[in-house]
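Journal club prep — side note

Before the paper discussion, L.F. wants everyone to see what a predicted structure for a comparable chain looks like in token form. Sequence:
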Amino acid sequence: TDAQIATLLGIDGSPEGWFMPETYQFHRGSSDLELLKRMYGEMQHTLEQEWPNRAEGLPLANPYQALILASIVEKETGVASERPQIAGVFVRRLQKDMLLQTDPSVIYGAADYHGDLTRKHLQTDTPYNTYINKGLPPTPIALPGEAALQAAAHPSGADYLYFVSRMDNTGKSEFSRTLDEHNANVRRYILKRP
């Protein structure tokens, strides 16, 4: 169980997010616990490198909050070049005391999610519903890679506050500075209306 893994590795709380997703070589006969220890050690090492060198003024109190933010960035895009911009959007929202409104976090906390995010999901109060609760969710929502951790520690300085997936083959997002621009992008890319 998660609790057993946390106890065996000395993780305080949930083990979610604490394992560096990489390709690992291991020997036949290695235990699952040995591999988890390596993955956990790699994540700790990466955080220990990124946290002291983070950008100034981040609204993150500790490395664990950077891990949580990186997990959101990891789930929001598969486009490597967009990670710093997406991290920047969430950092600015935290600084402005805005809701993060990140769908992957809502999905992570939804007990009945089966592929379609509904209005009911967005209105259900869970600790992971960032449409209702301000700030970061209580734990990471995924295993962030090194690039997402770097983006969380060094977000883009652009002044975007919103983004929406273009819903095309590129996987790219459209960024905007104002709610009006964002709503126009939602109509264009999600609702497919001018």
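L.F.'s comment for the group: The radius of gyration is 18 Å. Keep this in mind when we get to the figures.
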